[in-house]
Specification:
The structure is a homopentamer. By secondary structure, the first copy, chain A, is α+β, with helices and mostly antiparallel strands. Chain A is built from nine helices and seven strands. In chain A, strands 2-1-3-7-6-5-4 form a seven-stranded mixed beta sheet, sandwiched between helices. In chain A, β6 and β7 form a beta hairpin. In chain A, α1 packs parallel to α2. Chain A is rod-shaped, with a radius of gyration of 35 Å. Chains in contact: A-B, A-C, B-D, C-E, D-E. The interface between D and E is large, with 53 and 44 residues.
């Protein structure tokens, strides 16, 4: 689907053509006549025909086009003659399910055009485009500016997702160390799986962003490198937090195991103490159930209440003793 | 065994000779007279004589020939004067046994010939050859094109195997976190062993493919490097997924251990509660089994049913109490 | 908030202006007329206006200014034309809560100015400035001297924090290996979390300090590099100690788990021995509770005390036996 | 002890002198008069005098001589002017004890001589020398050929040892996952220790062999580098297998722990079920042991067999129930 | 404290002045008039005055002097103009307490002087000096020779300490796998802590020694580099052994955990079997304690002994059965 498409002149949107089709793309491209002007085509899960029309007009490399259509690629930055091809993973946090979902954005950045291909629901680029159009400043940097704006937006979303995960880890931590009987291993597992998801998005992106920030990519002017260094820094922060959360979760899991063991021990001692409260009176009952002829208590008028009292006293005494020594 | 053998001219199969023998190979090789034309000999677990005839005609290095015959080599790319020698591990997933099996392909790629030596059942090259012959495009790149086609096919199979393993891990995950009493350690172990198998195929191949994609290998023309970069990318994806599955399995295993502990604790509490249901009535029976002369209940007409009721009530009361506190 | 601000000439404070405002900053800067003279402005959690006035006068890069205002950055050293921007994490140990807290210092170091922006309560720079003013020696090195003094102070604080953590680890160690029943997993977890905090401050700072010590940063004269090498050494020491504490804690945690297991085993044996002391007499009572007609003991005058003695003897014998074999 | 010693001309043994002594060595060395001819002296745990005589004649470096005499060195390749000094660990598998034993070979390789010093029983060089003498081909490469032949033989032995360890790991694996009650931790520990032994031989040898295969060592002619690359490949295979076995053993150990836990749980449930089979009839006996006057069953002629049947039925019922729910 | 001080000419001690004081040092230094001659001052935990006098005369850098006085530095090699500053950790094993203790040696090595500053009791340099003076050979290399001699001695002590730790690990291993009930976690922990101590001494020293052995340090002549390579090799051996011991201890700890679990299981089964021996006779006693009118055995003359025999037979039968199935 073609989501949006426009020609940008001097950092301002000047023409928007929605219809698409190879002919339109060609006309649109020919309208570009000044340095820094460019066409930006935004697609959402395009079908083969749509993308091939665009590919033909802008000379996109077939391998890159295939990657953009198929999705499920690793984040990467490839240079084909006169063009940069970037694949990004997008992440967003779904509050209802406490889950991290992933999508993908592929970008073709040439001298006079940007083609963005988005997969998955998150990180809509529409609002990003509107923001860009209203500030103008970044758009004046041409296609490189759009490249920056999209990466910056995606990476900011990473940080937002990571912040949500920090909250999740805090909750798990509270649950593990609560005195309640909780089974946290499932939640820890799920969270570790999500951290792995985030890591798969963040780590492979560091190298492309580093290359962009080092000024070795032709689409990025020297003056723009501090901005990409800033993004690289955000990525490093996200990566560090994810690593640190992962290590924390491992420790929390170990602590959870220790808590289970401690609880097992506590339960065992409670059970044993409880058993003693019944077994000792049973012994007393057994004694007075013996059939000896000469057992003075048996004939005693208060023998029965005495025996019951003895049982109660024994149980009570044990109860106190276990209570004091922390077994009950 | 010689599986197939043909001369390719302008990307088309032009002569196929099955009989083999040193003389035939020599004649075949002499037919090559234009740039990009080449002979492709395909062998399956050849015996010493077969391969030595070929080695003699095409000048294959003895060490490489030895490696190709023996199999069980590590994936590697060696350059002998004017020739590239590549060893690949092949992987395939056997559905019936949920197992990953491995084979090996050794390739000798010279200017005017390709010799492929296959071991193990998987990754038949016959269909690969037919596909190549029908598309023609890759064959026009000469021996380097065949090299790419074979690696690409093998690596695609890696991704297919990895996808199957992802399914296996998902199944184990479901089993670990199910409430049923499962013993998943064996399956986790087997899967970890298979992941190690895949890793042994994938990791050592990355360096050869990287060298191929960097254009430093003479058999690969500059224009073909993006294709090898694509393969390198697939390899990286396979390696990342394998690492991530391995980490997930470790976490799943830990969770499995925690589940066992939790279950042990649950069982212990259930058993204790169950024991209490019997031990408390036993105490009551013991009490009314005492031989005191003065026990009013004993003479009471409804003493016996009353005692039974008392036992039942005690057991019932405990049952409720344990149920409410989650012990039963 | 502007905390302090002064002009330094020949290593001595010569003018201090507290009022602030863009006009004042401009005037102050214009007073700098000799090499090595500089203005030092100290801010504490400044609002947007305050910092932008300063940024305008001294030409601070907008991205750096944004980082300095927002805080929660990673330690880093950035070079913008003619200016060095450094972000440091500050750490301090709060005795009351045994907790490590973190703050942040951002520094802009130009040829004729230093701007420090501090976040969080710890590592007040006021006393650092006073010390510097009284010794004069470092101030003569100009802005580079201030840069060194601040980093040195912050890193010394790291070492102090690490020393406190060493004490905490020693305490945990003592607790784990005490014979008392302790639940150390929570404390180990908290301490591991704090070590991670320290690591996040220390590790990313190593690279900036290394660059400063290698003489490749323009603000630092060649003669100052041994001082930065000294700081790098302190950082390395802090990092090594943190790593080593973390490994020790992991081992201590494992030992804690082992202690729990050993204790569980001890408890189980104690409980079983205790149970035997009751169950064996119960068996004896059961035997004399049998209704056989011909049981000589029953008719015996001393039968009852004999039975009680037998029970006591059995219990006592078991007690001795369990005591000797270490079960009680 | 001087084991063997000979002069090699054109790849053929021409003179062998066993007696030794500095004078003999000198004469022997002087006989070398053509390129590629060389003296090969083989020693087994030589005493100080023996080696110093040789060292003097061939100009061996004192530090290297010391290393060769003392043994227990790390594998390494040192270059002293005009001479290469190599230390290798030898490994062999003793079937009777399932143990890996280690020895050491030190080699001095000059332009016209090879001195080998062997420690430990394994990897006898005598047969290696005989093989070399019978094939002649490698000997024509001069001292470098001998160097290759010895390393190749030692590394082949590594692979043989590793193959034995693979078998051992398979056995442990079978034992861990068998349903029998096995205590595999000792065997796993011992095997891990042996793997560490192998690793200590293999890993440090990789760098020397890499240097030999890169052609930067003067004793090795360019044409010999593919052979050393082959050895490097074997070493890499050994190292990979060892790493992979070590990881497998760790996983097997974890699985072993899980099996113990599962077994503990199974045992606990079996024990509890067994206890129920006794405790429930005891309760029934207790009920009919009560002394109520009005208990109709007591007077019933078939009361006793009825009670016994009731007990049997209760036990039988429980037995079925536990059997069905997998507790017995 | 000044421990010893002397002027060395042509590798021989020629003048020794104990008194110290800045004036004496100056005179002593002026006596040096030939290449290779040098002054060697040995200090033990010097006070501020002592070291500053020396620092002044020999031009030691203030930062290095501070490090030498304070101790607790990381091992490192620093170059200040015309001078090398080396910090070494010393280790020694105290037999009585099975503990590793640490000290420190700081060395200033200039063209015509060596100043050694020692902290802690171990690794006395006095005997080292005497050995050097008696052999003369190393002293002829000037200050570089002393540098080598001291490092060599310290590193030899590392190897001695590591050998002691190997013995300790062997003991722990024997204890873990003994059938006795041992609590090895404390000893393993302590040993791991000591290994960390050794690692902190060994690892950071590798880089300085590597630099010394690569000939890039001016105080070390080219001809001395093989000696430093030898030291580097010893260091590598110590580091490898420490790593390998650490890994072994981790495995031993895991095995210890497994042993505890196995023992717990054994104990549980023993306890259960023991309980059965009592509970089954109790059931029999309960049966004959029932009050049925028609119980033939009760009236039987040998009923009582028969019941006792039955109990004994039941217990005996169970005992055999449990014995055979390994539960007792």
């Amino acid at each position: 689907m073609i989501v949006d498409c426009a020609l940008y002149r001097d950092g301002q949107r000047s023409e928007g053509i929605h219809s698409g089709g190879a002919q339109h793309w060609r006309e649109l491209r020919e309208m570009v006549d000044a340095d820094g002007d460019f066409v930006w085509i935004g697609m959402f899960e395009p079908d083969a025909e749509e993308i091939h029309e665009v590919a033909e007009v802008f000379g996109l490399h077939p391998l890159a086009v295939e990657d953009a259509v198929l999705a499920h690629q690793r984040p990467k930055l490839e240079r084909f003659d006169g063009m940069v091809f970037l694949v990004l993973k997008t992440l967003w946090y779904v509050d209802e399910t406490d889950a991290v979902e992933t999508g993908e954005i592929a970008m073709f950045v040439g001298e006079d055009f940007v083609v963005t291909v988005r997969h998955g629901q998150g990180n809509e680029l529409h609002t990003a485009r509107e923001e860009l159009e209203s500030t103008r400043k970044v758009l004046e940097h041409g296609p490189g500016g759009v490249l920056y704006a999209v990466i910056d937006r995606v990476v900011d979303e990473y940080l937002a997702v990571v912040d949500e995960l920090v909250v999740d880890v805090d909750e798990i931590e509270a649950s593990v160390f609560s005195t309640e009987r909780t089974n946290d291993s499932t939640r820890i597992y799920v969270l570790k799986r999500e951290l792995a998801e985030v890591r798969r998005a963040v780590l492979p992106l560091r190298e492309p962003v580093f290359r962009l920030s080092s000024g070795s990519v032709p689409a990025v002017p020297e003056s723009a490198t501090p901005f990409f260094r800033d993004v690289a820094d955000h990525l490093a922060r996200a990566a560090e937090t994810v690593d640190s959360l992962d290590a924390l979760l491992s420790t929390a899991f170990d602590a959870h195991l220790a808590q289970i063991s401690v609880q097992q021990n506590d339960d065992m001692r409670k059970i044993s103490a409880g058993a003693a409260l019944i077994v000792v009176p049973t012994l007393i009952a057994g004694i007075y159930g013996m059939n000896f002829k000469h057992m003075p208590e048996l004939a005693w008028a208060y023998g029965y209440p005495y025996a019951l009292l003895l049982m109660g006293a024994a149980a009570g005494g044990l109860w106190f003793w276990f209570k004091r020594s922390g077994w009950l």
